[in-house]
């Protein structure tokens, strides 16, 4: 049985929050210098990409409310299958610039769905 679209959106929001938490107080050099933090952040991006991919299949109209769906899934695939090519500076940039916007979009979608159900 497929999971609810709400569950996938909640997974994305939680992963965004965990990325923010992992990076708190770090700069790019600190990120590069900590393999445990890099692994944790990359794992959360894999979760995000998987959730976005599942959401786009389960509820494509809802997934249309998320910017750059295909790029998110492609990034997940790169992290999973082409990990030697990962550039820490690119991951850092996505984590610090794009994750907050993704979180906001998914939180808004959750709020809209919650309002529609209420």
Task: Describe the secondary structure blueprint for this structure.
Elements: H1 5-23, H2 28-32, H3 35-58, H4 60-63, H5 69-81, H6 88-117
Helix pairs in contact: 1-3, 1-6, 3-5
In short:
The protein has 118 residues and is mainly alpha-helical. It contains six helices and no strands.
What this model shows, in words?
The chain has 118 residues and is an all-alpha fold. It has one domain. Helices cover 81% and strands 0% of the residues. It contains 6 helices and no strands. It has helices spanning 5-23, 28-32, 35-58, 60-63, 69-81, 88-117. It is globular and about 45 Å long. The model has no long low-confidence stretch (mean pLDDT 95).
């Amino acid at each position: 049985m497929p999971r609810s679209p709400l569950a996938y959106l909640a997974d994305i929001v939680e992963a965004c929050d965990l990325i923010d938490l992992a990076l708190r107080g770090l700069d790019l050099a600190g990120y590069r210098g900590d393999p445990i933090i890099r692994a944790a952040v990359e794992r959360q991006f894999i979760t995000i990409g998987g959730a976005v991919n599942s959401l786009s299949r389960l509820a494509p109209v809802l997934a249309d409310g998320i910017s750059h769906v295909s790029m998110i899934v492609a990034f997940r695939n790169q992290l999973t299958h082409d990990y030697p090519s990962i550039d820490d500076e690119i991951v850092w940039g996505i984590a610090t610039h794009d994750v907050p916007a993704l979180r906001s979009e998914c939180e808004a979608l959750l709020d809209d769905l919650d309002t529609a159900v209420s």
